[in-house]
Amino acid sequence: MFVASKLPQQLDRSGWVAMLPARTPRPSLNRTLNADVAIIGGGFAGLSAARRLSQLDPTLKVVILEAGEIAEGATGRNSGFIIDLPHEVSSEDYGGTDSDERRHDIKIHRMAIALARDLAVEKGWGKDIFDPCGKYNVAMGPQGDKHVASYARQLDSVKEEYRLLDSEEIGEVTGTRSFTSAIFTPGTVIIQPAAYIRGLADSFGGSVKLFEHSPALSFDRQGASWRIKTPNGAVNAGKIVLANNGHAQSFGLFRGVLLHVYTYASMTEAFDPTRLGGQRSWAATPAFPMGTTVRRVQGDKRDGDRILIRSRYTYNPRMQVSDGAITRAGRIHDRKFEARFPMLKGVRMQYRWAGAMALTWNGVPAFGEVEPGIFAAIACNGVGATKATAAGIAAAEAALGMDSWLVQVFRGFATPKPLPPQPFLTIGATANLSVKEWSAGME
Ligand SMILES: Cc1cc2nc3c(=O)[nH]c(=O)nc-3n(C[C@H](O)[C@H](O)[C@H](O)COP(=O)(O)OP(=O)(O)OC[C@H]3O[C@@H](n4cnc5c(N)ncnc54)[C@H](O)[C@@H]3O)c2cc1C
Q1: Cis peptide, bond prior to residue 423, ω within 30 of zero
Q2: Which residue has a Cα nearest atom 31 of ligand 1?
Q3: Residue ranges of the FAD dependent oxidoreductase domain (predicted)?
Q4: Is 355 in the pocket of ligand 1 (CB under 6 A)?
Q5: Nearest CA to ligand 1 atom 20
Q6: For residue 95, is pLDDT > 50?
Q7: % the chain with pLDDT above 90
Q8: Burial code of 323-360, b = ≥16 C-beta within 10 A, e = fewer?
């Protein structure tokens, strides 16, 4: 029997959720249901798995259990980049990777983008929710410039399209002269993550049932199926897709291989768009690994625009952060905002939040049939909008016995490497994050 030792707790809500109208969550589970497949976790991985299952067999009975509310978790807290090309790369990272593997990664990312694009078409979403606008990888000094140049060489080697921009050109896009160079790649899609995942959740009906405020408390084998208990109900399911990211460990699975790292974001109040030149909407990842992600979010006619700043990483093995940690990260965000946008002096941050990520030492997913009938799509490795989406699709296909290209690639990943023992792990992880953040400086 697998019993949850811990459930997710959210201290705050993200600016993305706060900016949306209130939504009535789906009811919690209060009876016993039978399902072909039960999915634990309603983030990118879980809901993408549900969508794939219903595409493959619309008659399949699927039950999704979400511990909290849709968009409360990391899926509604991220910066909204569904990237096609890896972005946190240094020349060393890229140089050491086999180019076939890189192409596999890119193909996987594009399969995730295809799922999101189909949904966007189905829903008739505008650019405020799903914007296939590409992204900039921006530098703020000589070290960053070197990364930009190196990234361009690596993109040449995988024959991917890009455009290099000098300081003036990226200034015309962003309205600030703070960036020294940039590289534009056209394939990334930018989403309003909370609206996206709510839309995906609300697309289910018929034989796919979603229950919110319904944490899986335990699951155990009952003959040929699995019985999952929630506080007021139960699900008997032939198969389980485990899509609760770092909380897989709370059931005793993937012990000693998941690194629980938090990252932080702040979003400004709406400001008069005439205060900042350039385009009204753009999205930039840092050229320098561990640097700062920045987005300008265009408001509607009544509202103004906002700037999102995402930076800072902390290692939190207990899978929770304090208000103090969010405040400390917020001070860093304020400095980074001021350095980039001196013309927006006086504009304050309206929302601040943190979110959990599950990484592995060797950057591979924790994927596969962990017990007969239990298919894991765990370890987003920080880029879950693409990787967890793809892992969810692959887990759905594997659960139905398919041996697709995607399933083969996911099965072919190395197994996650064991983490060093405590206290070396905490000391090492904290020191490593601090050194990398320090070397990123204002980038
Ligand atoms: C500030 C920030 C910015 C980021 N920016 C980006 C970005 O731009 N692009 C990108 O690709 N990634 C980004 N990420 C990472 C990305 O958000 C994650 O990789 C992604 O959300 C992982 O998706 P997931 O479905 O695997 O897990 P999660 O989003 O963590 O979803 C898991 C779900 O499982 C639920 N759950 C847990 N335990 C149980 C249980 N016992 N029963 C039922 N449900 C349970 C949780 O409530 C949660 O909703 C960012 C993260 C943060 C915090």
Answers
A1: yes
A2: 43
A3: 36-397
A4: yes
A5: 384
A6: no
A7: 84
A8: eebbeebbebbeebbeebbeebeebebebbbbbbbbbb
Query: What is the 357 CA–ligand 1 centroid distance (Å)?
Result: 6
CA dist., res. 129 & res. 196, Å (int)? 6
The domain spans of the chain are 2-77+194-257+362-424, 132-190+260-360+428-440
Q: From residue 196, how far is each of 71, 211, 352 by CA, in Å?
A: 9, 18, 20
**pLDDT, position 87:** 66
Q: How far apart are the first and last CA of the chain?
A: 47
Spelled out in words, what is the top-level CATH class assigned to the domain 2-77+194-257+362-424? alpha beta
pLDDT in tens, 200-220: 999 998 999 999 999 999 999
Q: What is the Cα–Cα distance from 173 to 160, expressed in whole angstroms?
A: 22
Ligand 1 nearest atom to the CA of residue 385, by list position: 11
The mean pLDDT of the chain is 93
CA of 244, closest atom in ligand 1 = 34
Return the CATH class of domain 132-190+260-360+428-440: alpha beta
Q: Which residues are CB-neighbours of 84 under 8 A, at least 6 positions away?
A: 106, 109, 110, 113, 185, 187, 188, 189, 386
94 lines ligand 1 (CB under 6 A): no
- Indicate which atom in ligand 1 lies nearest the CA of residue 65: 43
What the block records as the tokens of 379 is 């370890």
Phi/psi for 94 (5° steps) reads: -70, -40
Question: Given ligand 1 and candidates 245, 259, 314, 410, which is best to mutate, with the most ligand atoms within 8 Å of its CB?
Answer: 245
Domains 2-77+194-257+362-424 and 132-190+260-360+428-440 share a fold: no
| Placement of tokens 């995607």 in the chain | 406
